[in-house]
């Protein structure tokens, strides 16, 4: 007999407290349930159930076997559900966490196309400027820019951006332009408070040497657009990704502080909970973003 069916019959008898109710639950005859359980006991060489005219209860060995059997049956059910889900069309609520500036400028414009392509998916996009705990806070995925913190989360690279130091022409006219990395210690720096490394800028000198600039900064905020606005206003030098400052540079509102320094290339990632199985709705959205961002052109556009 099928071992899994024997196991299911035994576990159902324990769950239902008898053969009659177990037969109803499984949709088979009482004699068939009894036959499955007897076959299981014979194969194992142990009595799993105490049978009386009034009740049926597991023996000590039967109770220990039940705990393991129930786990196996649950895993088998999840495996069946996994296959069914992978073959089904993406659907359901998709909760996404994304930094405000990236969400407004780059996710919001493409969401309409995604929802038209996948009408059975509904999206709840939460804009915030902190690292959320995906699983405990109920998110399906997040979009993160830059170096990923050590994590058990899975990640897929969507595209890249570059970070450079920028400030307004008025700032440079008043304070001068830094000529080397050490000069930054004498300048007014604008920091992003949610940076994993704190108020530290990791830079690469023209020689290729890795350097760190650590200052308290004149202004620290948790929003990239606010940092850009502060730089445009002449408050200091900000270290921002291209997708934030590109338009301001094209309009002459800001300039690169040290254009001779190598650009800091950073990945833009979709992160999502671990596991061998990725939900179809998550996989569909990530594939859509990879395709959408690829059509935006080279890295310099970001």
Weakly predicted, low-confidence segments: none
Overall morphology: elongated
Helix content: 40-55%
How does the major sheet shape up? 9 strands, mixed
Elements, N to C (H/E): HHHEEHEHEEEHEEEEHEHEEH
CATH class of the largest domain: Alpha Beta
Spatial gap, N to C terminus: 62 Å
Oligomer: single chain
Mean pLDDT, to the nearest integer, reads: 87
- So how many helices? 9
Query: How many beta-strand segments?
Result: 13
- Please give the CATH architecture of the largest domain: 3-Layer(aba) Sandwich
Q: Give the number of domains.
A: 2
| CATH fold-level label of the largest domain | D-Maltodextrin-Binding Protein, domain 2
Structural class: alpha/beta
Report the portion of residues in β strands. Answer: 15-25%
Short synopsis of the structure:
By secondary structure, the protein is an alpha/beta fold.
Describe this entry's structure for a reader.
The chain has 302 residues and is of the alpha/beta class. It has two domains: 3-87, Arc Repressor Mutant, subunit A (Orthogonal Bundle); 98-302, 3-Layer(aba) Sandwich (D-Maltodextrin-Binding Protein, domain 2), CATH 3.40.190. It contains nine helices and 13 strands. The strands form three sheets. Strands 3, 4, 5, 6, 7, 10, 11, 12 and 13 form a nine-stranded mixed beta sheet that branches. The model has no long low-confidence stretch (mean pLDDT 87).
List keywords for this structure.
single chain; 302 residues; alpha/beta; Arc Repressor Mutant, subunit A; D-Maltodextrin-Binding Protein, domain 2; 2 domains; 9-stranded mixed β-sheet; 13 strands; 24% strand; elongated
